[in-house]
Amino acid sequence: MSALLPNVSVPGSTAALLGTTDHPFNLTAAAQAGHGPGQSLAPLCTLCCCGLLNRILAVVFMVILAFAVVIGNVVTLTVFVQTRQSRTPQGYLKVSLAIADMMVGVLVVPFSIYTEIFLMVTSAPPIWYQGSTTSSAVLSSLDGPVNQWQPCMLIGPVFAGCTFVSISTIFLMTLERSVAILWPLHKDTLVTRRRTLLLILLSWAASFLLALAPLIFSRNFTLEYNECSRMCNYTPLLFEGRFPPDSNILLLFPAFDFTLLGGTLAVNIVSFSSIRQYTRKRKLLSEGSLSDGGGGGGGGGGCSHRPSFSDIKAAKTIGILTFAFTASFSPIAVFVLGNVVGYTWCNFSFFAFWILTGNSCCNVIIYSVRDHRFRKGVTLLFQREQSLPHGEKT
Fold it and tell me: Of 74-88, 133-147, 208-222, 284-298, which one has max mean pLDDT?
């Protein structure tokens, strides 16, 4: 998710300095020189963040993560699409979640890989980087060409939108399971495929609208590639060294996520309380059937309208998904709040953003451990691929 990162203000006297500096990419260092002697600002890019060894390790990590995210979610989509038992409202929600995760692995992570490799090879920023607002101000003062658009204007909202889609989909999955737990007889009536698909479309539209909110409702933000987080982040434009008055608009991001996470937690508490009561009642009925001898039929009939074992297990699986997403998103929320009050955490920003990105490959692991139908679908998928050439030959 894109977060609030401090921008660098480039005064007019800095333009001449940038023309002679050996590292034009480090605009922060140039901005420091414009503040005069005795005034030093900590650069956004520290040696720990941007050293050569650190960049190499970061690229290796990004490549491994990109393959894990793409392959894992391709397998997930293939299993859910080819398995008839997965063509349910819950299956559609899992497909939506997998698509959002795969978009992160296909667009967001490869873009960071390309940028990091470009910086290592050329020791200079790409041409498109000069299209950022900060660099445009410098190039305009130098009478150079100005490019008003850069890929971060696409990559940043995609990452933020996919993050919002993930949490909203997990919230919808929790609601769907709560209906199956609390009202099992009305599950098929309340949760239909048409309603589920409509809610999925609404969640995607609302998520990407929220991701673009800082650009739609304010002219004081831009999107730039940040050397610390290795991500495209929203950046407020400084006015005379101060943040714009509407910089708090980015607090909508953590507010939205934590509101849905809180709602998801509340629904899970209600569902698990019902599961606990059902388990206790079933245990008492089982003990009564053993003592009465003839009460087995009554005990079974008393539980006929109760949720099935698969519904209970699915609810627990979604609870694990919620916990994993909350754990991966919490560092980002701390980072955003820290930036709002004026802290700049370079090293922490890298770990915060990429922990959240790594969550995109966690869902397939959770499905593999918790969902026996998913494991069976994966097994059948690979067995079919192995037996297909032999079948074609015969």
Answer: 208-222
Which DSSP string corresponds to 129-155? GGGSHHHHHHHHHTT-------THHHH
- The residues, any chain, with a CB within 8 Å of residue 215's CB and separated by 6 or more, are 157, 221, 223
Residue 221, phi then psi, degrees to nearest 5:
-130, 150
Higher pLDDT, 30 or 64: 64
User: Which residues make beta-bridge pairs with 223?
Assistant: 234
> For residues 85 and 81, what is the distance between their CA atoms, to the nearest angstrom?
10
**268 touches 316 (CB < 8 A):** no
> What is the chain's percent helix, strand, coil content, to nearest 5?
75, 5, 20
Give me the half-sphere count of Cα atoms (radius 13 Å) on the Cβ side of residue 2.
35
- Distance in angstroms (rounded) separating the CA atoms of residues 317 and 172: 14
Checking if the pLDDT of 126 tops 60, the result is yes
User: What pTM did the predictor assign?
Assistant: 0.76
Q: How many residues appear in the chain?
A: 394
Q: Percent of the chain having pLDDT more than 90?
A: 18
Name residue 80's amino acid.
Answer: F
Amino acid at 133: T
End-to-end Cα spacing for the chain: 51
* SS3 state of residue 126: coil
Those residues with Cβ within 8 angstroms of residue 374's Cβ, 6 or more apart along the chain or in another chain:
76, 79, 367, 368
| H or E element in which residue 347 lies | helix 346-358
Tokens of 191: 């949760």
Please give the C-alpha separations between residue 92 and each of 81, 118, 198, 377, in angstroms, as whole numbers: 9, 39, 11, 16
Spatial CA neighbour of 13 closest among 30, 29, 27, 25: 30
The b-or-e profile of 258-280 (16+ CB within 10 A means b, else e) is bebbeebeebbeebbebbeebee
**pLDDT tens, position by position, 251-303:** 788 888 888 888 888 888 888 888 777 777 776 666 665 444 444 444 444 44
Choice among 101-105, 133-137, 171-175, 383-387 with the minimum mean pLDDT: 133-137
